Amino acid sequence: MTTSPDSPQKTAAMLIIGDEILSGRTKDANLGYLAEWLVELGIELREARVIADDVEVIAETVNVLRQAYDYLFTTGGIGPTHDDMTIEAVARAFGVPLVLHEGARHNMVEVHGLELNEGRLRMITLPQGCELVETKNAIAPGFQMGNVFVMAGIPKVMQAMLEGIRPRLETSRPYTSITLTAHLPESTLSVPLRELQERNPDVRIGSYPFYTDGIPGADLVIRSRDPARARSVAEDVRLMIAALME
Amino acid sequence: MTTSPDSPQKTAAMLIIGDEILSGRTKDANLGYLAEWLVELGIELREARVIADDVEVIAETVNVLRQAYDYLFTTGGIGPTHDDMTIEAVARAFGVPLVLHEGARHNMVEVHGLELNEGRLRMITLPQGCELVETKNAIAPGFQMGNVFVMAGIPKVMQAMLEGIRPRLETSRPYTSITLTAHLPESTLSVPLRELQERNPDVRIGSYPFYTDGIPGADLVIRSRDPARARSVAEDVRLMIAALME
User: Fold this and answer.
1) pTM for this entry
2) Number of domains present in the structure of chain B
3) Domain ends where: B148, B171, B194?
4) What is residue A104's predicted lDDT score, i.e. its pLDDT?
């Protein structure tokens, strides 16, 4: 893992693959996990997409996203059944054939002691030139192809795969994020908050409204890669809230 | 609401707008809800995207998705603060100006008894030609512009807005979905399951693996708009599981 504190942040996209997410049958839990994990590494998640089990659509979307961002993380569709299409789609996206991966075969047969039936053969037949992701206890192999990291959809397996991916990523200093809660409606906060944002264009100020027992409030989040700047603007926000509460 | 049982399903996309989702600060709960809601109406959710608070990116993505699908549902970014950019972005996407919406003003001032400060004025200054979504208790108005439905990001408010949108959608007969659980690894299921899928191309068979105490299994989901076909293929799947368990 290369950490370059002051280099520009690397950008990333996430691609969540599976009919079951789009039908609501399965509630995705991977986006929130990956988002927080990338924040800690100082990598900026710019976009996420959820798409169906369709080889053409997956291949096209992989190509759009891997060209638009430094890293692409995919989840889902690497199992042995007919509705698992991610491996074939990634091979198509890169224009390479699918070949039996010797490392994945070794892992499945020698390490896990499994017999090679047709379903398992399908799981270890991977895009030519890909590199396995080291994962404890995972049978379906995750892999890297260029800047694309292909992972399982089951949250625990995905999380284990991310630990195998971590050393391959170029990280940078994460954002410092300070949250202040204002017990005021956003409509009252909006003008002074906008002025603060305009005076401090290097710091990002977000406002996230909520209701407590029907009473409106907002969490104000101040973010900067420079901790001193985040603290300084957070102090201005604190004074603004105090003045509005008087 | 027009229900046409045998007409082709309408297609939809969802656009989730907000830095807070991409940073992991807020875990999205709206995709799962909308997905299930659309299934019941017989509308097919084909794609969802999560993007940041950036007017250009929002406007471009709205234009891509509203042209690709029958309906587009957006969540987030309709409040009064500087980081709420969805309203401006939708106006830009449609090439129309932002104008004070008389119905939204009436609702805010006469119905909710609120004074019009600058923040609230911003919330009721909407793309010219849009139509409000009737929503109980919501102050930030949701609205429809062409085939785009613009909703709040707070789950309870979004859910209330969907009820206002429901009568405007063309629905169709929903899919019948039957789930059978197999206590077998997917690698064992994959060959006979693929054969069943190939023999029944009009029915969609999905396989969703899980682990119980480390033992692999899979939920097999059989979906069709024809309930008799779903039942018939589900029976074949049941027999297949029984044969494999022997």
Assistant:
1) 0.93
2) 2
3) B171
4) 93
